[in-house]
Design a protein that fits this description.
Helix content: 25-40%
Structural class: alpha/beta
Number of helices: 10
Number of domains: 1
Largest sheet: 6 strands, mixed
CATH architecture: 3-Layer(aba) Sandwich
Oligomer: single chain
Distance between the termini: 37 Å
Number of strands: 10
Strand content: 25-35%
CATH superfamily: P-loop containing nucleotide triphosphate hydrolases
Length: 250
């Protein structure tokens, strides 16, 4: 059984159709890369899985989006519970103007967790999972905004992990980082798939090839091709995919 699935999905913002007849499945404990030119629908597709597109009043969706084989757009769906299960990391780090500790503890507190020992345990574990613990363990009360840009992004990953999701959505998580910080995030993605199902939007073809198990190529709101990453980058079946991954796209 797949972890995430889209079935015949069409998405509109007003009169504009952003996604056209998208169907694909993503398995547990894999990394899926979504690639394609700017404005092709990959970030919009990513945000379907935690219902971030709901923030647009003129959104209209047809088809089915499943998480753990459950339709997350049915009327009885609990959106707060969904967003606890499906974490999100954005392109630019967005730490809160709080301490490092309180940034990571935030999701636990708003979900009603009051046990101090449990919160401390989750903060520690999440910072360890995000490869940030050794950098900050001696001063967890330090303002998060004093961290480097790369550290802030790892902090945001730790914050997403603290509530113990099973899925992690990452929208161009390294595009604003220096090469060394981006490499650290890539290594982290590879390590996290042991426990999480990860979907990454990226413009970086080398990054997609390095971190993902499967790759989906989007163009003008359509899913052109979806296959194992090594196939997409060596023997794509569609000429448009080949042009894009080899840099001859026009």
């Amino acid at each position: 059984m797949s972890k995430l699935e889209a079935r015949d999905v069409n998405l509109f913002f007003g009169a504009h159709q952003a996604l056209k007849n998208i169907s694909l499945q993503m398995e547990k404990h894999t990394v899926t890369a979504l690639i394609g030119p700017s404005g092709c629908g990959k970030s919009t597709f990513l945000r379907l899985f935690n219902r971030m597109n709901d923030l647009h009043n003129d959104m209209r969706l047809s088809g089915t989006i499943l998480v753990d084989n459950k339709n997350i757009y049915q009327r009885s769906a609990d959106v707060d519970a969904l967003r606890k299960k499906v974490g999100m990391v954005f392109q630019k780090p967005n730490p809160f103007p709080k301490s490092i500790f309180e940034n990571v503890a935030y999701g636990l507190r708003i979900n009603g967790v009051r046990n101090k020992n449990y919160i401390e345990e989750r903060v520690t574990r999440s910072l360890q999972q995000a490869s940030l613990w050794d950098d900050v363990k001696d001063n967890l009360n330090r303002p998060a905004l004093q961290l480097s840009y790369g550290q802030q992004q790892r902090l945001c990953i730790a914050r997403a992990l603290a509530v113990e999701p099973s899925v992690l959505l990452m929208d161009e998580p390294t595009s604003a980082l220096d090469p060394a910080s981006a490499s650290t995030i890539e290594e982290l993605i590879y390590e996290l798939k042991i426990k999480y199902t990860i979907v990454v939007v990226t413009h970086n073809m080398q990054q997609a090839a390095r971190v993902s198990d499967r790759t989906a190529f989007f163009y003008l709101g359509e899913l052109v091709e979806y296959d194992e990453t090594k196939i997409i980058f060596t023997h794509p079946t569609h000429q448009r995919t080949q042009n894009y991954v080899t840099g001859r796209f026009g």
